[in-house]
Amino acid sequence: AQSVTQPDIHITVSEGASLELRCNYSYGATPYLFWYVQSPGQGLQLLLKYFSGDTLVQGIKGFEAEFKRSQSSFNLRKPSVHWSDAAEYFCAVGGNSGYSTLTFGKGTMLLVSP
Amino acid sequence: GAVVSQHPSRVICKSGTSVKIECRSLDFQATTMFWYRQFPKQSLMLMATSNEGSKATYEQGVEKDKFLINHASLTLSTLTVTSAHPEDSSFYICSAGRGQYDGYTFGSGTRLTVV
């Protein structure tokens, strides 16, 4: 069975500091990996996705993530956090089809301090 | 492009009544749509997979007679919560699969409150 672990329930980062959100996955085949962001009371917005190829993936809003197969990880990073980045972040894993189901991690709440 | 519209965004209903939530893909055809439920401060739990023109596939533990899903066209799927009770109060989110390698687009969610 596929699973996603986000070990940090919440993280506080100072504005302008760098950010790394951790994600580990378990999947029996080649995974498709996603990072989504959710603001309170809103749906999910895709930040970036990894299907194949270059293991360093660039996304929107200055985010990037690196796929490390040996560590079963797909950590999300941003070099300089803005106050507007405060939100809930979800890592997800799915199969190699846009019709397969996604399994989400429990999410990491990012708080940005002034 | 790739917009999924979900309505209503918020709904309050009385216990025992039914509520319908719509999920529309506005600029693409979605043969598969997914319905999730999210409890406060928790992750998304998949409820069912909706395939156009066929019966939905429900996840284990989800009551298919309570959560009726219809996917009558390539752009519309509906979730009807029947005989709603306060414990059905939650945030419901739909997503549409755009095909291989294209990923998924999520609706903005529906906050259901049953009083």
Brief summary:
The complex is a heterodimer of chains A (114) and B (115). Chain A is built from no helices and twelve strands.
**What is the helix/strand order of chain A?**
EEEEEEEEEEEE
Task: Report how far the terminal alpha carbons of chain A are from each other.
Answer: 41 Å
Order of helices and strands of chain B: EEEEEEEEEEE
Main beta-sheet annotation of chain B: 7 strands, mixed
Overall radius of gyration of chain A: 13 Å
* Dominant shape of chain A: globular
Given helix and strand content, the structural type of chain A is: mainly beta
Give the largest interface.
A-B, 26 and 28 residues
Strand segment tally of chain A: 12
In this structure, how is the largest beta sheet of chain A organized?
6 strands, mixed
What's the count of strands of chain B?
Answer: 11
Helical/strand content category of chain B? mainly beta
What is the mean predicted local confidence, pLDDT of chain A?
91
**Total count of helical runs of at least 4 residues of chain B:** 0
Low-confidence spans of chain A: none
Large-scale geometry of chain B: globular
Secondary structure tally, helices of chain A: 0
**Proportion of beta-strand residues of chain B:** over 45%
Name the assembly state: heterodimer
Arithmetic mean of pLDDT of chain B: 90
Topology:
The complex is a heterodimer of chains A (114) and B (115).
Chain A: E1 3-5, E2 10-14, E3 19-21, E4 24-26, E5 32-38, E6 44-50, E7 56-58, E8 64-68, E9 73-78, E10 87-94, E11 102-104, E12 108-113
Parallel strand pairs in A: 2-12
Antiparallel strand pairs in A: 1-4, 3-9, 5-6, 5-10, 7-8, 8-9, 10-11, 10-12
Chain B: E1 4-7, E2 10-13, E3 19-25, E4 32-38, E5 44-51, E6 57-58, E7 67-73, E8 76-81, E9 90-97, E10 104-106, E11 110-114
Parallel strand pairs in B: 2-11
Antiparallel strand pairs in B: 1-3, 3-8, 4-5, 4-9, 5-6, 7-8, 9-10, 9-11
